[in-house]
Write a structure and sequence with these properties.
Layout lengths: L3 E11 L6 E12 L3 E5 L6 H9 L6 E7 L7 E4 L11 H11 L4 H14 L15 H13 L5 E5 L7 H17 L3 E5 L3 H7 L2 E5 L6 E6 L14 H22 L1
Parallel strand pairs: 3-7, 3-8, 5-6, 6-7
Antiparallel strand pairs: 1-2, 1-4, 8-9
Helix pairs in contact: 2-3, 2-4, 3-4, 6-7
Bound molecules: adenosine-5'-diphosphate and magnesium ion.
Length: 255
């Protein structure tokens, strides 16, 4: 049997001074090893909470997250909307940082960080400091920092949201290239329906809070793929299908 991540009947409730907030409830889905799954849903529906539950940064109030049939204890890495690099470390040292906690020796850390920066097109910026990089470069460094640890599951929380439209296209191309070079299990949260379809093998559509899965949509694009996938007529139809599911919640949030 192949490895998978299985989320069953997941619930997370938060206590707050204004009463309990039920962020997620009755959430069920699974992700297979090397599958790229995108998650779209209204703002506040529990997407970030879900990723934190999967990463083990939060505990569920009910239900469970299970990693089935992985050869060893699976490692998760996260990429956030804000790159969050340490300003006092060079780009290479930022990327190497996660390896230090894994007990990798310094020479090996340097080598792996350099290789990973090369894969992300940042070889010439290894010695630069975060303040010297553009928004897109910072986010590429953040992805390098996540990937260098060799995570079994990469959790990405709206990683391109803060970038301008053109940089976002370049980042989407980078993600497609990275995953065709080396398959990777990815759970990618985005508010952009087109991005979800373009990157994902499957798109999970979430309800408004308490978040649960409203629908799972398979993307009929093969791999390797590139950005031209977006002009495929079937993709246009999928875009509308997903938008029709999200529209009521989007309208309510404007009311
Ligand atoms: N630590 C927390 N304490 C209280 N409420 C929280 C906490 N984290 C998230 N929430 C609430 O849970 C709901 C889902 O939040 P979040 O997962 O950030 O949504 P999304 O990422 O989909 O926008 C929101 O109503 C949010 O206010
Ligand atoms: Mg969020």
């Amino acid at each position: 049997m192949s490895a998978s991540l299985v989320v069953s009947d997941l619930e997370r409730r938060f206590a707050s001074s204004r009463g309990d907030v039920l962020a997620l409830q009755g959430m069920n889905f699974s992700v297979s090893q090397n599958e790229f799954v995108c998650l779209v849903g209204p703002s506040g529906c529990g997407k970030s909470t879900l990723l934190r539950l999967i990463a083990g940064l939060l505990q569920p109030t009910h239900g469970q997250v299970r990693f089935l049939d992985w050869p060893s204890e699976p490692l998760c890495a996260m990429v956030f909307q804000v790159p969050g690099l340490f300003p006092w470390l060079s780009v290479a040292d930022n990327v190497a940082f996660g390896l230090e906690t894994q007990g990798v020796c310094q020479a090996q850390r340097r080598r792996q960080a350099k290789d990973m920066l090369g894969r992300m097109g940042l070889a010439d910026f290894a010695g630069h400091y975060p303040r010297e990089l553009s928004g897109g470069m910072l986010q590429r460094a953040a992805i390098a920092r996540a990937l260098v640890t060799g995570p079994d599951v990469l959790l990405m929380d709206e990683p391109f949201r803060a970038l301008d439209a053109q940089t976002r296209l370049l980042m989407q191309e980078d993600m497609l290239r990275l995953c065709s070079e080396r398959p990777q299990t990815v759970l990618f949260v985005t508010h952009d329906i087109e991005e979800a379809i373009l990157l994902g093998d499957r798109v999970l559509v979430m309800s408004s809070r308490p978040g649960r899965i409203l629908a799972e949509v398979s993307v009929p694009l093969g791999r390797p793929r590139d950005l031209t996938g977006r002009s495929h007529p079937e993709i246009e139809e999928l875009r509308w299908q997903i938008w029709r599911m999200l529209e009521p919640a989007a309208r309510l949030s404007q009311a």
